């Protein structure tokens, strides 16, 4: 089969290798689509020992298995099912979680990927292949972050910093969860414009503005600082963005108030059904995010467009 190898410096080589061997407790998924994620820009730059790709939808190809022939998403944390976190339903917080698919194990930029059975999220027939990956990082991650925020307050308005895929997903999810006023901060005009077309308001450059709920999805330190300052007293600031650094200045706008900080990672499997409902009811809006589909041979070029900010949520598609 064909698979992508990330060599670093933006280079992606397509190699031919054996299909994954059958393994107990696992099934092989023939990959239908795998969406690009901003977190993979590190992998693109540095190279990676396994095949990346962690927003995967595929078809189970395991004759004799109960799910053979069915379409499924791959939930990336390999969870154990018996630790206290898993039994409480927090599969994304599994105490025995070692690997993440596409990070420590081979992922979805290949024709076939091996997936632990407990990580299969079967896909209903009405969800098309190309929209399915949005149920993971683009809907699942911000929806979980917003549900965490709702433990603190149910009152908006909401401010979202960063209009990458997670931020744009958050714009839609926040409105769907009943927050009618969503303000979006994003330095790149065309990305901000996309957010506005999805119903957000442009976040005003007003040093005194405060929001009961702030979601930071860019991972940029300056935005993290602003997120802390923007959070209203008794409000909640949710960090979704990733980076290797964390540099915050505890100035007056941060120090002199009571507020909550939430860090949110991915989402628990139990939220999958609710997330399906989010995709179904605003399908046309989510559709706008999938702005390119390429075969594996087009992945290197697509990643360079994605890295430059020219693409929203493009994907490798086996039918492209
Ligand atoms: Zn991701
Ligand atoms: Zn566990």
- Helix proportion of residues, in percent? 25-40%
Which ranges are low-confidence, i.e. pLDDT below 50, for 5 or more consecutive residues? none
What is the total domain count?
A: 2
N- and C-termini, Cα separation: 17 Å
CATH topology descriptor of the largest domain: Quinone Oxidoreductase, Chain A, domain 1
Q: Please report the number of helical segments.
A: 10
Q: How many strands, what sense, and barrel or not for the largest sheet?
A: 7 strands, mixed
Give the helices and strands as they follow along the chain: EEEHEEHEEHEHEHEEHEHEHHEHE
Give me the secondary-structure topology.
Elements: E1 2-8, E2 11-16, E3 26-35, H1 41-46, E4 56-60, E5 71-74, H2 84-87, E6 112-116, E7 120-122, H3 140-150, E8 158-161, H4 165-176, E9 182-185, H5 189-197, E10 201-202, E11 211-216, H6 221-230, E12 231-239, H7 252-255, E13 260-263, H8 272-281, H9 283-287, E14 293-294, H10 299-307, E15 315-317
Helix pairs in contact: 3-4
Bound molecules: zinc ion (2 copies).
One zinc ion binds next to loops.
